[in-house]
Design a protein that fits this description.
Layout (H helix, E strand, L loop, with lengths): L3 H18 L2 H9 L6 E6 L3 H12 L3 E9 L5 H6 L2 E6 L6 H15 L7 E5 L3 H4 L9 H13 L4 H11 L8 H4 L4 E6 L32 H6 L14 E7 L1 H14 L4 E8 L3 H13 L4 E7 L14 H12 L6 E7 L11 E5 L2 H9 L3 H6 L3 H8 L2 E2 L10 E7 L1
Parallel strand pairs: 1-2, 1-4, 2-3, 4-5, 5-6, 7-8
Antiparallel strand pairs: 8-12, 9-10, 9-12, 10-11
Helix pairs in contact: 1-11, 2-3, 12-13, 14-16
Length: about 400
């Protein structure tokens, strides 16, 4: 049986195998390797650089020009400019003036291409905040207030994007008319449950189905709901000039983690259902399952939700989840648990998540002199996990397929 140090290293190895499987450069390169068509490239999201590099690998000089919009720290402008691609930064998770500029530049780039030019869109998570063009009557301050509320309001991603679409001229298929019938191929890295293309990046090129969504079924504050009547209700229609496909998803990452676990000799238990809902309930459930489980590797994926206090501390939902589990397994010598964002980020800061074990609580208490619950109540889990030495840093990963949770019972 592996010791705890070896078990922790195995979890990191398994997590990295999952990231490698869904890395944007690899997935896009494989999807385009038999495509002879010259294109103008448009890459949007946290994985924009890696997806753009995959297109360059596959198409070479058939990439005639391009626009790449990503998050600060997720893009090497010199590298992409050298390949003839124009690079812009938007803001994430709360949009700012850079996001509005990126929206204007996106529309201008599309409309300035020749009418018969094939457009190649490479879209990943984060696009909703990075690129925006607002309806008349909605300004930046209003948009920022909405997004700040959404981030701490506990809504699932599909509900958050329903609100975002209602305020936007380009989301929910709103970008389709700007194509002016130009042919477009759209490759997506999915960061949403069910891999619905209409939710990834808020569906810039995916027309909404059914009647306009007035969001009556969502629990929204009055000030937010008051914005919505001024927003036009018309929707873009589906277009036969737009071809959409998903090149990487959470299921791919989970399968890769399972394969690496078997390669390392573990009995693997792969949970394919999306793990969502309140992070506090999820944490209790996973800790209980691991505590009562047979020895082996346990893999989950999804995106639990967090309701933040007015002044949250350090850390994101994965760190919160990991600390919840750490509190439940404290003192045990046979369990370790990893929770991390596949994009390399988890809330503010540079941490992707955390890897905890039965000694995490003791290590953190010795340094801070407080219990995990104090930090959990303040949404300050990152401070405790920094003290216990359990934070994970990957840097930008070139992908974004939600979160992975991996437990190991020895």
């Amino acid at each position: 049986m592996a010791d705890m140090a070896g078990a922790r290293q195995d979890l990191l190895t398994i997590f990295q195998a999952a990231l490698d499987r869904v890395e944007g450069r690899r997935c896009v390169r494989e999807s385009l390797q038999h495509d002879p068509q010259p294109v103008s490239l448009i890459a949007l999201g946290k994985a924009a650089q890696s997806m753009a590099q995959g297109a360059l690998d596959a198409l070479g000089d058939r990439v005639l020009d391009g626009l790449v919009i990503s998050k600060a720290g997720h893009m090497d402008g010199a590298l992409l400019n050298g390949a003839g691609l124009n690079c812009l930064e938007g803001a994430h998770p709360v949009p700012d003036e850079r996001s509005l500029r990126a929206g204007r530049e996106l529309v201008e780039f599309i409309q300035s291409r020749p009418k018969d030019r094939q457009l190649l869109f490479l879209i990943s998570g984060g696009t909703s905040g990075l690129v925006e063009l607002l309806h008349d009557g909605i300004d930046l301050a209003m948009l920022q207030r909405v997004n700040q509320w959404l981030l701490g309001g506990g809504l699932p991603i599909d509900a958050m994007n329903r609100v975002r679409k209602a305020l936007s001229r380009i989301k929910g298929g709103g970008l389709i008319p700007y194509l002016q019938r130009r042919p477009a191929r759209v490759l997506l890295i999915s960061d949403v449950p069910g891999d619905d293309p209409g939710i990834v990046g808020s569906g810039l090129l995916v027309a909404e189905k059914g009647a306009p969504d007035r969001l009556e079924d969502l629990s929204l504050p009055g000030w937010l709901r008051a914005m919505l009547p001024a927003v036009p209700g018309e929707r873009a229609t589906a277009a036969d000039n737009v071809q959409v496909s998903i090149v990487a998803s959470l299921s791919d990452a989970r399968e890769a983690a399972a394969e690496k676990g078997r390669e390392l000799g573990y009995a693997v238990n792969l949970h394919r259902a999306h793990l969502g809902g309140d992070v506090n309930i999820v944490g209790q459930r996973l800790a209980y399952e691991l505590g009562d489980a047979w020895p082996g590797l346990y893999i989950w994926g999804g995106e639990p939700t967090v309701q933040l206090p007015e002044e949250p501390g350090q850390g994101g939902r994965n760190q919160h989840l990991a600390l919840l589990v750490a509190a439940q397994i404290a003192g045990r010598q046979d369990i370790c648990f990893l929770a991390a964002g596949t994009d390399g980020g988890d809330g503010p800061g540079e941490d992707a998540g955390a890897l905890v074990d039965g000694g995490s609580v003791g290590r953190g208490k010795r340094v801070l002199g407080i219990t995990p619950q104090v930090c959990l109540d303040r949404a300050d889990s990152g401070r405790f996990l920094a003290a216990s030495g359990d934070l994970i840093q990957t840097g930008p990963t070139g992908t974004n397929v939600m979160d992975l949770m991996i437990g190991l019972k020895l």
